[in-house]
Specification:
Blueprint lengths: L2 H18 L5 E12 L6 H4 L11 E11 L15 E13 L3 E14 L2 E7 L27 E11 L7 E15 L9 E14 L6 E13 L13 H10 L2 E2 L2 E2 L2 E13 L3 E11 L13 E9 L8 E12 L30 E2 L2 E2 L6 E2 L15 E3 L2 E12 L2 E12 L10 E3 L2 E3 L8 E13 L4 E12 L5 E11 L1
Antiparallel strand pairs: 1-2, 1-26, 2-3, 3-4, 4-5, 5-6, 6-7, 7-8, 8-9, 9-12, 10-11, 12-13, 13-14, 14-15, 15-20, 16-17, 18-19, 20-21, 21-24, 22-23, 24-25, 25-26
Length: 489
Amino acid sequence: MNNRLIIELLLIFIFTQVGFAQVQEINAKLESQVIATSKDQVPFWMWANKYGSIPLSGFSTGLIGSAYKEYEETGSYEGRDSKLFDWGAGFEGRVNIGKETEAILIEAYVKARLAMFEFKAGRSKDVMGLVDTTLTSGAFAVSGNALGIPKVEISLPEFYTLPFWNGLFAFKGNFAHGWLGTIPVQYGNHKPTETYFHQKSLYGRLGKPSWRLHLIGGFNHNAYWGNTKTYAPHFSLSDWQEFWATATGKVYNNSKTGNHAGSIDLGLTYDFNNVHVLAYRQQIYDIGGLYHLSNIADGLNGLSLTNKRSSDGSSFYWKKILFEFLYTKSQGGELSAKITPSGDENYYNSYIYTEGWSYNHVALGNPLLTTTPAAREGQASYERDYFINNRVVAFHLGFQGNLNKWDLVSKLTYSINYGTYGTSPIGHSLSTRRDPSYGLFEKVGQFSGYLEAQKVFSDKWKFGLVLAVDQGKLYNESIGAILKANYNF
């Protein structure tokens, strides 16, 4: 069954169920946008981490419609009242009209909850990893940058407190199987193949509910895999054996099956009287360097501060501030680094899949690692690398607040970009070989800024303005603006 048929069946089911649901249970919204960008280029923060809801460049209009049926609950899983069984569904679609016309299915899913467990099927807006999801520059594995991969999933979506030791331990996690469709490969006979998505995660939290301090740790594992025999006839594993090898990271013929990405995450929360603190570190992995600690310097670090005080009616109110530092320059490829069997990590690029760790031509993980379509033309690159810039040092500031009854969201990001090891002076590392054969990437700085202001004028209407700018040599320099109006049904 292909992705399109899966989605169509889900849509039929959603709207059938919505027809039987009470009207007051449905939250529906319609948003109209007028978009203008300079130099035929959409600025970075107008397309990055938007779950694939991307406007056209130049002058265009956009229409976004959504409808959601959420769980009927009065609390969460922390012992408060909620229904033993409940169900929900969601849909969001976008139509762009400009130099071309396109329709984008952003979300279409159904979900059901039994006690603390949830089953979900379809396409949804997901982030994988320990981050501040509202303001982050992007989690390493799945950042909400691309459209969601259609999948079926069983999960503990929220931390569930174990009912002993006075709630000292809590856990959450997921296990999912997804469908990427037929995608191009650059290995063997180069035959495009039907490819699947594997995802699992497990996170634990230490700390009683009454404690101010809670410690969080866990991991997520994500992989593209499937039908390897179609492009590598010598491959002898059955479909089940290939799935098991991918899910467990088992080595077959001196290499792992599929293309893997994930992170081991550590963090903490602390509740001051007026401020909630979240601090986290994503220790990232790709092809196995972390096992040898060769890329231990790389990772995403974040500090999020949330204001617990309610607005007192003053003209200015800050709600949340986020600081992030992303470092992916090491990759275990420095001349002084320990030599590993697989060489430097070369994040997001794959010797199997032509477009690496992307979905529908957009990076699935952190968007600061740059794909060929996103980068300014003229930089050195290797023709088999879809991500031409994955050695990045970035500083990111996010802000949410309110000024004179206008809700504000701002993102300010500055990055220093070094290309890949293949386009560096020392080249890729593999055993003792160094081969900088693809030209030299010019180290460049890049600033991307974003400001969004919205104001509620009634219980139905909300108006907003978005401004974004790119200044630097990684992307084409551009500015953009969006005027938008929301109507809630």
